[in-house]
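Box S1 | Example of a co-folding query
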Amino acid sequence: MKLVRFSEGGAAGQAGLLVGDKVVPVAALVPDAPADTCDLIAAWDRIAPKLARAAEAPGIPLAKVRLLAPVPRPEKIMAIGLNYADHIAESAGAGVVTPKDQVWFAKMPSSINGPFDPVEHPKVTEKLDYEVELVAVIGKGGRHIRREDAARHVFGYAVGNDVSVRDWQLRTHQWVLGKSFDTHAVIGPAIVTADEIGDPHGRAIKCFVNGELRQNSNTGHLVFNVWDQIVELSQVMTLKPGDIIFTGTPGGVGLAMQPPQFLRPGDVMRCEIEGLGAIENTVVAEG
Ligand code: ZN
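Box S1 (continued) | Returned holo structure for zinc ion
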């Protein structure tokens, strides 16, 4: 299934299932389904069988709704750095080598943004950049998750853009501020449930800027794969339904181009992953 959040005619967002080119409100099939997406994911085993009729149910044409971030208020957004060999290689000039340990940072939940919404170009930077990433959404929470169990803790997958403010990211050891500007955690267009995806590794992943192909890789090239990441994170924190994991970006970021190419207002970023769809966001000046 493809879980989305959408709003129709300016109404408040609600959960829906994307079926072909229609959206079926979850509440139309399961009136007592939790309104909050994290609660809905937590209750999924009870809800999912009742959603099986979605294909036959009446829906709203996709063209008539606005798709929102499928998880609007995750408790956590964690993101891993330097996790594709080609991205490590292009960063080598900065003294970067393949890490022995997973390099984690957080993006604040307040940075979440919808799949087709504007991305702010902050007033305080001239070094705005894109990063297409496979995003894993936690389903069953847990602590000290074993590697052989990790796949069963994933609710589903989405396309992400880990928008990055490079000068703020790199001027200290800590990346959190440079990764947490408002609107800079883009996810969507839907969460494709894990049962439809199976193994998420081995999928084409691409990012275009104004139609120019900038990043072009495969999720099979992750240094630490999704299961490794869940094991590592869950040693530290209790993972919860709806938690978001950005699993790393491949080579081709604007920072590494010669000369570097940073985003300007009006630029259009398109990120896509085979089987998960595409997200497209226009850069707009802050305020
Ligand atoms: Zn990233």
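The chain has a mean pLDDT of 96. Helices lie at 26-29, 37-42, 44-47, 85-90, 166-170, 176-179, 194-197, 226-236.
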